[in-house]
């Protein structure tokens, strides 16, 4: 309500100051006596305010408050208490702002409006006057500062579709700042009506631009335009003129706003959604409220998106409890100006303090200058002593410099010696690294020889197993022959034949055994060759170990583990362990006992 009261006061101030006042601020006695109508202007103004603001008024109290005497309140100071107590404190906001402003405009326009012809109509001048009251500063007499003038002219220029001439306005602003702080409402009307910032535009374009800015700033019209609306009962589509305000969307038959068809009340629970095309209608969107849902069709996709974004922004502002964008922007501009003004005042205060401090410093400097002059004489005498001391210090410094040079030369010689030792050490490290690489290669050779030995051992073990199997088979046949000899004589001939066949098989087996013996000998020869290679590798490893031992033990060789002595069978050296050999002996004895 405080903001509403300030807005009302600005319009009322124009109407009240239009009354014939003397220098003291009261309606002069001579004017009151000269015309009964003039005497009644203040009560009539109050009566009209109560009517347009929908405030109940008491004619008796009104006449009593405006009685005709020397102490009467028909003045700027006397009228304000009545205005606040009997009118403004009772305003509820349920009144027509345009009608209220038009009533105040009627009272003040005739006296203050310029007589020179303007490029705008009286209606446009009225709208500019209302916009002035919205943008003017909250101090009296009312003025609009250059920043708000620039904002208003930019809005009008954008509405006309023209380009903003910043350089032209900067020249005008400089000329304005040199003479005053801002413009009055009537000077602003003259400025816009002169066409200085709307050159090349006709009266109709300027009028439409002023009307658009008026709708946005004063009537809180955030967006307006024609769209199709689906009915709730008949479900038919009708074209309506929609007007979006901070808390309601009103729709009319046409843009003249005479025939209103309804309202869509907006709150924080409302939402807007885009709909797919259906029933031959395109660019559809939906407005959901608590009690109703409205389907609307825009003229094109761009308009649809603009309306959805505008409605969603309005709903978000309602949820956040924020004012309309233009009012919030105006408040921010005012706060910024107040901040800049406070900073400027603070800067001026600091400048004054600096100036006072500077004067004090000047006085202190003068005192210091005198003290310096007195000290200069003393300094001259001290300078002589200082020069003498300096000569002594220079001699001492020269001696220390020579001593330092000698120390530096010795240090350089030591550094050179250390560098030579470091180079020798690095050379020795490189030699050891080379020996380490060669030792690695020898170890690799030994590893390969061991792998070959392992392969030969496995081959020898396989041949031995095959030989064992053959011998077991021969013993079996021998046992069978012994059993055959003990058979009866009648079967002797038949057994003899079988024996001959068995002997032939035995000969074949003996030949195979001889072949296996040859293979075993070849494997043994291969084993001897691998063993020689292993011994050669071991000797190489030992020679490298001896060489490495002379180099302070920097590298330790990785030596192979100790070898167990090989077991020797009647068929030659083998890789059996004692446990394996005992197991085979037990197996042969068991087979022999079974055959007997």
Annotate the secondary structure layout.
Elements: H1 2-17, H2 29-34, H3 36-39, H4 41-52, H5 59-65, H6 76-87, H7 97-112, H8 122-135, H9 146-160, H10 166-179, H11 185-193, H12 203-217, E1 223-230, E2 237-245, E3 248-252, E4 260-265, E5 271-275, E6 284-288, E7 293-297, H13 301-320, H14 325-485, H15 492-549, E8 567-569, E9 572-574, H16 578-595
Antiparallel strand pairs: 1-2, 1-7, 2-3, 3-4, 5-6, 6-7, 8-9
Helix pairs in contact: 1-7, 8-11, 8-12, 9-12, 14-15, 14-16
Pfam family, one: PH
Main location: membrane
Domain PH: 220-316
Describe this protein's structure.
The protein is built from 16 helices and nine strands. By secondary structure, the chain is α+β, with helices and mostly antiparallel strands. Among the domains are: 1-112, no CATH class; 223-323, Pleckstrin-homology domain (PH domain)/Phosphotyrosine-binding domain (PTB) (PH-domain like), CATH 2.30.29.30; 351-420; 421-452. Strands 4-3-2-1-7-6-5 form a seven-stranded antiparallel beta sheet, covered by helices on one side. Strand 1 (223-230) and strand 2 form a beta hairpin. The longest helix has 161 residues, at 325-485. The termini are far apart. The model is unreliable at 21-39 and 69-76 (pLDDT under 50).
